[in-house]
Amino acid sequence: MSDDGSDLRCAGCAAVGLDSRRCPSCDRELGYRYVALPAHDPAPCPQCGGTRCDTDGRCAHCGRSRLVPDRFDADLGAVAVLTDRGIVHTRNEDAVAAGVLDSAITGASTTVVIAVSDGVSTSARPQVASAAAVRAGVGATAAALAGGQAPTDAIMQGLAAAAQAVRDVDVPDGPAPSCTYVSAIVVHNGADTEITVANVGDSRAYWLAEPGDQAGNEPSRRLTVDDSWAQALVDAGALDERAAMADPRAHTLIRWLGADSPPEPWADNCVRTMRITGPGMLLLCSDGLWNYLPAASALAEQVAGADPATAADTLGEFALRCGGGDNITVALAPVPWSGRPDDGR
After folding, report:
1. Contact (Cβ atoms closer than 8 angstroms) between residue 39 and residue 72
2. 258: helix, coil or strand?
3. What is the rounded average pLDDT of the residues 4-11?
4. DSSP per-residue letters across 279-333
5. Is 156 left (phi over 0), alpha (psi -120 to 50) or beta?
6. Averaging pLDDT over each range in 13-22, 28-37, 166-175, 268-277, which range is the top one?
7. Is 174 left (phi over 0), alpha (psi -120 to 50) or beta?
8. Is 128 within 8 Å of 166 (Cβ atoms)?
9. pLDDT digit string (tens) for 163-216?
10. Who's near 237: CB < 8 A, 6+ residues apart?
11. Is the domain 32-40+71-335 a CATH 3.60.40.10 member?
């Protein structure tokens, strides 16, 4: 299975390669857009002119350390993504990937697949782990949807692929590479939208309703449950959420993706589905954002009235103004959505 969704096949000639706009074999419009960030190909190496960079930020030709931008973003119309190094960390250990499929592939209306991952800083090569997780997760999920599988099954295939990709990360010594993972499938069917989410760790998914009197709209709320020490304290009734997050062990993970995690490192109830009409946006994010603004209603107020790309920038800048103590990653999918998969800028 390719980690970029290239096992998806062209409906015209069955050729693989749906990681671009058109089929490389028959030139048919594919109806699939894909992005994974951070991108590891910055400007040409100043020492040798090489144009490729490995996942550790070094030139693939001469090994020189190369400058990587602090921020990467992309707008696919049906989803906008952003990841930022923040202020305190010296590198970005988060990653995000997204794919947008149209009806030619899924047989339904526009379908969006998203994954956000946060590398565990105390592990070896956490930035490689997070990048591997989101690329494998989105690729496997999109391929499963293209094969006709239901979203709940497809998202679990993506989660399993992400877990295996992190186990496969090569590290000579040190703690096993590990990361968190949250993913979503958004299926648009006219006025009705189905959202399916899954998570391991403490990266989160939120539904952000457009503020105002929207009769019948689902209110803003968090869609995932953290696999963390703080959440365990809340679930046990020992502390409320505010007090639990003040505990120095709050962000200690009880589940994660990594070679040192169980074969199936997710909770039995890690998948959740909701149907919604909107208006609003689905948000996936790392704790570099929600540490500063954990309440769904407050997040919704921050992005009220904005398009997804502007909203992503707003949330990124908010986290930086609050101190940028961690890497910041967000993905936003608008509901409802009726445009083409390539309507982004």
Report:
1. yes
2. strand
3. 60
4. SEEEEEE-HHHHTT---HHHHHHHHTT--HHHHHHHHHHHHHHTT--S-EEEEEE
5. alpha
6. 268-277
7. left
8. no
9. 999 999 987 777 889 999 999 999 998 788 999 999 999 999 999 999 875 656
10. none
11. yes
- Write phi, then psi, for 251 (nearest 5 degrees): -90, 5
Task: Give the pLDDT confidence score for residue 53 in this predicted structure.
Answer: 67
Place of tokens 């001469």: 62
Amino acid making up residue 116: V
Give me the helix-helix angle, 296-303 and 308-321, nearest 10°. 120
Q: Which two tokens stand for residue 56?
A: 């550790």
Regarding beta strands 181-189 and 111-118, do their DSSP bridges make them parallel or antiparallel, or are they unpaired? antiparallel
Type of residue found at 138: V
Contact 170, 315 (CB under 8 A): no
Q: How far is CA 311 from CA 71, 74, 102, 190, 269, in A?
A: 15, 12, 24, 23, 30
Q: What angle do CA 269, 158, 250 make, to 5 degrees?
A: 50
